[in-house]
Amino acid sequence: MDTLLLNDCTLCPRNCHIDRIKGQKGYCKTTHELIVARAALHMWEEPCISGDRGSGTVFFSGCAMGCVFCQNYKIAQGLRGKKITVERLSEIFLELQEKNAHNINLVTPSHFVPQIVQALLISRKKGMTLPIVYNCSGYEKIETLKLLKGYVDIYLPDLKYYSKEISKKYSNCEDYFSYASKAIAEMVQQVGEPVFDGNGMMTKGVIVRHLTLPGCLEDSKKIIRYLYETFGDKIYISIMNQYTPMEPIKKYPELNRKITENEYEALVDYAIHIGVENGFIQEGDTASESFIPEFNEEGV
């Protein structure tokens, strides 16, 4: 592992410049020690990721975004989870493969990229062959993403905001779109256009997620238009309606509700109207806490 990347940490756009090797913590609230909250088969991703056997998800604790509405705030901000070694992480990848997972799905991994690359190297030498999914906030630096070239097969980033004002208010990063748009371009350049196997499972490609927030329909439309006009059919767009108000959201009363069917349908109709064909939408009661997994250190 290249400890220089952690001695003066600039892995994410926060550029904290702290020494995580010596135990200092930056915006992500983590040192160099890996913290994992759950490693298990997960059925609630897009159909081409979860399939019928599940995606082998590894939920990392800590996060550089700090969104006020975070559904996983217990691990992103509360750091619930277990400290493990790089060697143990490599074993977890192999154990998920033995459980017949379709892929290895790295959830909120950005602040642990050097350790993850090392774990992937170890597990590959021991027979790990599954596609690797990099499931992130989109708030990424190109320099960090380049470390993943040849290791990641599927990028699954968010594109949360277009507006500087909204991204500043809810995630304290008015530069979010500037970084995320460049990051997605790098991801597409790395893995190319979508590739599926004979069972409809994605083996390479980029799926960009957008979680619709209450009262932010116009910003959501700008995001969908940007993605389609910039990348066309080179990516899939996943339009999500599963926003769920969590306990900390009481400080932001405008977000303390689910989005309405009309709001979501208006965004989906807009996407169809401008020509989006490669996409996923959500149906049914996905805006429920029951869709948030138990972070009980299962599989860790």
Protein model, in words:
Keywords: Iron, Iron-sulfur, Metal-binding, S-adenosyl-L-methionine. This is Radical SAM protein. InterPro entries: Aldolase_TIM, MJ0674-like, Pyrv-formate_lyase-activ_prd, rSAM, rSAM_sf. Residues 58-170 form the Radical SAM core domain. It comes from Defluviitalea saccharophila. The protein has 300 residues and is of the alpha/beta class. The protein has a single domain, classed as TIM Barrel, CATH 3.20.20. It has helices at 4-7, 47-50, 73-76, 86-98, 113-125, 142-146, 164-171, 176-191, 217-231, 261-274; strands at residues 34-42, 55-60, 82-84, 104-107, 132-136, 154-157, 195-196, 202-211, 236-240, 279-281. Strands 1, 2, 3, 4, 5, 6, 7, 8, 9 and 10 form a 10-stranded mixed sheet that branches. Helix 4 packs across helix 5 and helix 9 (217-231) packs parallel to helix 10 (261-274). It is globular.
Number of discrete domains = 1
The CATH architecture comes to: Alpha-Beta Barrel
**Spans of at least 5 consecutive residues with low confidence:** none
What is the top-level CATH class? Answer: Alpha Beta
The radius of gyration is 18 Å
Number of strands: 10
Reported by name, the CATH topology is TIM Barrel
* Structural shape: globular
